[in-house]
Design a protein that fits this description.
Nuclear Transport Factor 2, Chain: A; single chain; alpha+beta; 5-stranded antiparallel sheet
Length: 223
């Protein structure tokens, strides 16, 4: 069984960029890609420390806080379409896209939310800024636990309407976007290309992704 630390790392680093797929993006934070990751992470941890007990007893308040803090810096539409790929997203109706985003967000909360609330270690370091001269940038992060294990993370951000938005994250060598993309394609094949069936059963795919990332960080934590 994974330790609370490893669960929390996954929750914070893998789920954070995608927990709010359907959140409004009208108040996106300005500044560099590095500032977006640094500022969002700091604000989220500070908010969790201040309201942890409230969120444990009131999940809706926790959900609202994630929407408020993380939502503005996530490319919701870009992430969901990337997971579906153009093969399936171009066939999806607006209603299907909305249901997919809602199901994805709800299932991420279900499988990662509790672990995120247990995250109290502050051993997080954002790497120095890299070249951000183009419309795509990478921001690195290191998370160190009490057991000495270090979890490397790399966020991919893209400029959307002139503002940096998170599009993907790689946790300990696992490309989370690719993981979900492969699982979506596999689910479509198993469901006979029935998009509604795949969308409605997406929680099960998120559970599979959690098992895969659990194994990866669990192996490192055991070193």
């Amino acid at each position: 069984m994974m330790s609370t630390l490893r669960n929390a790392c996954l929750a914070l680093l893998a789920a954070l960029p995608m927990l709010v797929l359907a959140a409004p993006a009208s108040a996106a934070a300005g500044g560099s890609a590095h500032d977006v990751v640094q500022g969002t992470t700091s604000e989220l941890l500070s908010d969790l420390n201040a309201h942890r007990e409230q969120y444990r007893s009131n999940p809706n308040a926790f959900y609202d806080a994630l929407n408020r803090i993380v939502g503005p810096v996530v490319d919701a539409d870009g992430i969901s379409r990337s997971i579906m790929t153009i093969k399936y997203s171009r066939k999806a109706t607006p209603d299907q896209m909305t249901r997919f985003q809602e199901n994805f967000k709800r299932s991420l909360m279900q499988f990662y939310g509790n672990a995120l609330l247990e995250y109290t270690n502050q051993g997080i370091t954002v790497d120095p800024p890299r070249d951000e001269s183009g419309d795509r940038a990478s921001v690195g992060m290191q998370v160190k636990g009490n057991n000495g294990a270090v979890y490397p993370v790399s966020y991919t951000l893209e400029k959307v309407n002139g503002e940096w938005k998170v599009r993907n994250v790689i946790v300990n060598g696992i490309n989370i976007g690719k993981l979900f993309r492969d699982q979506f394609a596999d689910a479509m094949q198993r469901n006979g290309n029935n998009l509604d069936k795949t969308i409605d059963g997406w929680a099960g795919e998120v559970a599979k992704a959690k098992q895969a990332t659990d194994g990866a960080t669990g192996a490192q934590g055991a070193q």
